[in-house]
Design a protein that fits this description.
alpha+beta; Ubiquitin-like (UB roll); 22% helix; 98 residues
Length: 98
C-alpha cells in the first residue's frame, strides 16, 4: 500500500479526510500513483494532470521523502520508503503570485 497525502481542496473534492492508502498495480511510479488515485476517485481526473496529455498541471507538485519529484519523468520509480508505506507520497498545491 502506498500512502498518499492530498492538499485540502482535493480532499474536499474527493470527500476524504487526511491520508489515503492506495494499491498501485504495476510499477510504483508517480504515474502509477496518479492513475490509481484517479481510478478510485474519478472526480480528481484532470485536477493534477491534463486530461489529454497526462502532463502535470503547472501549480501541482509531487514530493516523496523530502524530494521534489514534479519534474522527474512520470515513469521514475518511487523511493523504497514510499513503496513500503513508511513515508507518504505528497501532492502539494503550489502558490503563484507575489
Amino acid at each position: 500500500m502506498i500512502r498518499v497525502v492530498l492538499p485540502y481542496h482535493l480532499c474536499n473534492l474527493a470527500r476524504v479526510d487526511g491520508e489515503l492508502e492506495l494499491e498501485v498495480t504495476g510499477p510504483p511510479t508517480v504515474d502509477g500513483v496518479l492513475s490509481a488515485l484517479e481510478a478510485r476517485f474519478p472526480i480528481l481526473c484532470g485536477t493534477m494532470r491534463d486530461h489529454g496529455t497526462l502532463q502535470r498541471r503547472p501549480l501541482i507538485r509531487f514530493f516523496a521523502c523530502g524530494q521534489d519529484l514534479s519534474f522527474d519523468p512520470a515513469d521514475t520509480l518511487l523511493p523504497e520508503a514510499v513503496i513500503s508505506g513508511m513515508e507518504p507520497f505528497r501532492v502539494v498545491g503550489a502558490m503563484a503570485g507575489g
